[in-house]
Amino acid sequence: MRRVINILRGNMSVIGLVLLMTVSFCYAMFQGGFVSWFIFYSFLPFSVYALILLFYPLHDFTVERKVNKRECQAGESVEIALTFTRKNRLPLLFMVVEEELPQEMEDRGLQRKIIIFPGFKRTFSMSYTLENLQRGEHSFQSIRFWIGDLFGLVEKEAIYSSPLKITVFPRYHELAYSDLDRVFNQGAVVSTKKTQREHSVVSGVREYQPGDQLSWINWKATARTSEIMTKEFEVQKNRDVFIMLDEKPSDLFEESIEMAASIAHAMLKKGMEIGYVSMGSRSIIPAAAGNKQKRKIFYRLAKEEPGVVNALNENKQADLTDEERFSISTAVSRGIKISFFEHGHLKFDRSEVMAK
Fold this sequence. Notes:
- With 356 residues, this protein is α+β, with helices and mostly antiparallel strands.
- Helices cover 31% and strands 28% of the residues.
- The N and C termini lie far apart (76 Å).
């Protein structure tokens, strides 16, 4: 009984409709004649439908959301399909469906409100397309829809939770960057090892230092100089780097994200090991190679937002673990900083911007 009272309270117009039909019935009974009964029977179906709709169980609906892809690149489009299923075939004149979009999309003025006409169908669907998606992780939470009668006397609304996340990775550009190979000081021998001395390539001689092996002694140079001289070996260079993103607020923040993504893509494409760290976060992605590393870096770049905190500042590292301090010091010493370029620089090819 309480539920019926609550429903009637939210639809006071139905009470007025019932009173109107009661008055028209009494008028037809006492007045008689074709016109009075015609008026009564003309409004009777609409009144009965409104009363049935008033108690129609919207909780019997099931809603399924499907998306053609959960990950895409900035600027691409995603198609979302909604399928509604109900248990009965009561004719529904119309249904208004509204997708509750993430806040960042609503701020851009995007709205997704569509009217459909289910009729007697038990299963019906609708679809829409989100175009030109912006970088970020977009969370969809619920779907809101409502039904009503022809005259708007009854309106029923329901909200269904249907969580969905769409990750939009940043754009990247193909960079013609050739100075990516790991080489010796002389020659062009590719190396996949960490930085160390190569004992098979001698580059010169130097004075003996404690800790040098006896096999390193150059006896000819020792006899010529009358001092113990040892061989100087070639040092293998390792070009593994960290990309450090400067997160200071700027109008060119998105360009910085694209630049970081482009550099990471170019270096990983060359087989290099790339790490990533942002100036406003303590989270370090260790240097690695391959498509999995690219996905990790792009996922971080997709979620980056402008900030003013510098987590890599030495004065703010007192509460860090030894491993975090080591990762940060490694990133700072071997990093390529991605900052904000001038508007004039961005008019040129991005490979030229890298050189600057």
